[in-house]
Design a protein that fits this description.
heterodimer; A: about 120 residues; mainly beta; 7-stranded mixed β-sheet; 4-stranded antiparallel β-sheet; B: about 110 residues; 3-stranded antiparallel β-sheet; 9 strands
Chain lengths: ~120, ~110
């Protein structure tokens, strides 16, 4: 069964950092394109970042220069390093596997909540 | 403000059909056949319902269908069932980035 499990969220002060993890099972992360998508409380979905199987990555303008997507092939795990956090980064962060060729996401993990507050 | 425009709400009775629109620009919806639709129940992760405008992942009922005309994509849910009540989001590839709609709350009356 294909499954994604996120972890690493929590409460952090503005300007702080976290590393979010997404452990995959049932498939190989490095052979797929993967993404992070976030959802602020009570709001809609916002794409954050993508990493291709070849290693290339892209970011939303709102996080460029502050967030870094990566993966550990030996652990079959996707990461999102989030630095210089702002209150507007407060959200549930989901990881997801690419499906088809057009940036569709399936499945999604259950999400991990990041709260940025002083 | 979301990049793609969806109606905030839609409704229908069991057995009826409902269509949700998703309007973008020639830089996203109109420029690529990479529109996806997601269903999200309260407190749950989103679920892919339609990808590449018209395709359904395995396990998604054929009551769900997608289409596109110009800069507007649409999701149609036929034969509405109580369990279809959820939030629905569209998304589109937009050239090394992705944009989502603000979501539509579908109520099954």
């Amino acid at each position: 069964e294909v499954q994604l499990v996120e972890s690493g969220g929590g409460l952090v002060q503005p300007g702080g950092s976290l590393r979010l993890s997404c452990a995959a099972s049932g498939f190989t992360v490095s052979s797929n394109y993967m993404s992070w998508v976030r959802q602020a409380p009570g709001k809609g979905l916002e794409w954050v970042s993508i990493i291709y199987s070849g290693g290339g990555a892209y970011y939303a303008d709102s996080v460029k220069g502050r967030f870094t997507i990566s993966r550990d092939n030996s652990k079959n795990t996707l990461y999102l390093q989030v630095n210089s956090l702002k209150t507007e980064d407060t959200a549930v962060y989901y990881c997801a596997r690419g499906y088809g060729s057009g940036w569709a996401w399936n499945p999604w993990g259950q999400g991990t909540l990041v709260t940025v507050s002083s | 403000q979301s990049a793609l425009t969806q109606p905030p709400s839609a409704s229908g009775s069991p057995g009826q059909s409902v269509t949700i629109s998703c309007t973008g620009t020639s830089s996203d919806v109109g420029g690529y056949n990479y529109v996806s639709w997601y269903q999200q129940h309260p407190g749950k992760a989103p679920k892919l319902m339609i990808y590449e405008v018209t395709k359904r992942p395995s396990g998604v009922p054929d009551r769900f269908s997608g289409s596109k005309s110009g800069n507007t994509a649409s999701l149609t849910v036929s034969g509405l069932q109580v369990e279809d009540e959820a939030d629905y989001y569209c998304s589109s590839y937009a050239g090394n980035k992705q944009v989502f709609g603000g979501g539509t709350k579908l109520t099954v009356l």
